[in-house]
Design a protein that fits this description.
Length: 249
């Protein structure tokens, strides 16, 4: 009987210990603040990259689409990435590129990730990513008549992508500085979502609270008004502060 009693007490103690461990783990998880990753895109000057590093940005975006006012040459990009520290990602943005162009860029510039922002099919994205030997993001442009089901269908079509950048559908390819209806992003895609399109220091907190994306991406929202491609360091800092405040709140 004593042996049975001892076993029962031991079992109860073990169960109590398990509950305490689970409670502690839950408390620890709740204590860890959520952190939205930040990508500052369209950088073209060493001083911009240096400031992004100082601000603790998770990624910078370099545009390899010559028609864009934010585009950089291979030579410029080589200079820009020289100062990038470990664990900061360098994302190369392409619009309907040829294999030769992608190969030329990645053979000279230390990219971490490709971002396809044009009309590339899923097969084309996979083929170009294979040429580069890099993972990739697919930009999904959200128009006024887009429905959540359309975005789910696109995500399934581009299922090999590492994530999806949601941007506003405008004439041309991105960088329009216009906001779309964030409620269109299905909750099941939020954890793979990079939210873009008209974000700035004034609205990014609301966007984060409503969508809960994995990351946010900004370009025109950190520029001198009316000067595409010219980054404003004060706006860059304000944007990062706003994201951190949203996470803390």
């Amino acid at each position: 009987m004593e042996r049975a009693g001892t076993n029962m007490n031991s079992t109860e103690d073990h169960a109590t210990g398990n509950r305490a461990t689970e409670a502690g783990a839950t408390a620890t998880q709740q204590a860890i603040p959520r952190r939205t990753r930040i990508k500052l895109c369209g950088l073209s000057k060493p001083a911009d990259v240096s400031h992004a590093i100082d601000l603790g940005a998770d990624a910078i975006g370099l545009v390899f689409y010559p028609p864009s006012p934010r585009s950089v040459s291979v030579a410029q990009a080589v200079e820009l990435v020289q100062q990038v520290p470990p664990f900061m990602s360098v994302v190369g943005l392409f619009v309907n590129p040829t294999s030769d162009w992608v190969r030329e860029v990645v053979s000279n510039v230390g990219l971490s990730l490709l971002q396809f922002h044009g009309d590339e099919t899923a097969d084309q994205c996979e083929s170009l990513a294979s040429v580069a030997g890099l993972p990739w993001l697919r930009a999904l442009r959200v128009a006024a008549d887009t429905q959540p089901a359309d975005l789910v269908k696109s995500a399934l079509n581009y299922s090999a992508a590492n994530g999806f950048l949601f941007d506003t559908h405008v004439e041309g390819y991105g960088g329009g500085g216009k906001v779309f209806d964030w409620s269109l992003i299905p909750a099941e895609l939020a954890r793979r979502a990079v939210l873009s399109g008209g974000l700035n220091a004034q609205n990014v907190s609301d966007a984060i609270h409503r969508v809960r994306p994995y990351a946010v991406d900004v370009s025109s929202g950190i520029e001198v008004p009316g000067a595409k491609g010219v980054k404003d360091h004060a706006r860059m800092a304000a944007f990062v502060r706003a994201v951190r405040a949203a996470d803390a709140g």
